[in-house]
Amino acid sequence: MARKRKTYQRGVVEQKGSYWTLRFRELDHRTGKWSMKRERLGVFKNKTAARRAAEPRMAKINDWNNADRPPEVQQITFRTFVEGRWKAYILSAKLQPTTLSHYDSVARIHLLPFFGEMLLKDIKPMNVSELMDGLQERAGNTLRLIYKVMKMIFDLAIEFDLIEVNPVRKKLHCPEVEKVEKPILKPDEIRAVLEHLNETERLFVILLSVTGIRMGEGQALRWMDFNESRCELAVNHTLYKKKPKCPKTAKSIRKLRLHPGIVARLASHKAQSPFTQPTDFIFCRVNGEPLNQDTIRKRLNKAMDDAKIKRGRYTHGFHIFRHTAGSMIYEKSRGLKLVQGVLGHSAIGVTSDVYVHLDETTIAEGTALLTEELFGGFPSICDPTVTLIN
User: Fold this and answer.
1) Of these four, 58, 84, 100, 290, which has the most CB atoms within 10 Å of its CB?
2) What is the spatial distance between Cα 331 and Cα 348, in angstroms, rounded to a whole number?
3) How far apart are CA 116 and CA 114, in angstroms?
4) How confident is the model at residue 355 (pLDDT cuts 50, 70, 90)?
5) Residues 363-386: tens digit of each pLDDT
6) What DSSP line would sit under 145-203, residue for residue?
């Protein structure tokens, strides 16, 4: 078999309006046919500068055209890559189970039905635009996740030398999501909600309100995490599929000092519970399983409606207590680092992380501040001997 003749091009640099383009020939190794391609180079002051920018790109194009690439590499479909190399990559990346689930859902629901049988090398920015145009009715956060996963998939394909450039472009495809101010509740609104919950649900909401812990972190709390003598609550896990798992980030693992009134109510709750072993859940159903997320969310919605609180569709779930806690602490203390310590955020910026430090005593001020702000004038809330009547 005759050796394929090498070919080298400089490409044609042309100005189109305010930017320069590069025109060249590309070989399809699968069919042996050549086709003309044009790519945008960018904005340059003259042709010499544009030519200089085109040289590394033309070097890659010449390498591609002259390479002896096996046909099977050229015929890898998007589906084959996602179900093979991509899945293996994310499984080895030690991601959180929830993150893996989100990535899998994006690929399965949105990307595979659209790109599935297309060859990786044939997917262009126009194809990505067509996909994103058809998803404009989706929520902004969903669109940003789809964009993120797509970009990661094609970046990985580049690492495997299966494609030359990523067809996902920030200016063309990254959705602009309008930032909406998160609502918070007033102290009297939280107290009104509590009046329409049963004792277990009430204590659960009180704890979320005065600590700012995430809903899953509250569901995962077990008696081993509660130290009555030290007035301390350790956040070591969050709940995923009814089982405790490592929390969202390393800084989510934290210890919070509780107001004595809250400690007394937790101790009273333990005394009345049939599940008091160290590994038993603090907040559980009659069978000892952790509180069901859907059930208590419906109970919260009803309690808010009964309390005459106007709520949005996705704005007044349990996370509103976390936003409220952070806002109250900052309003009273103006301490961003204090908010970070109480809520367990991973970062608020390099300066504050490196130069501002908190000890446990300072963090304890956060939960004390919340308890006094929310329930200081209502001592019965923190008194386990007083039962609130619905």
Assistant:
1) 290
2) 17
3) 6
4) very low
5) 666 777 778 777 776 666 666 666
6) HHHHHHHHHHHHHHHTTS-SS-S--HHHH---PPP-PPP---HHHHHHHHTTS-HHHHH
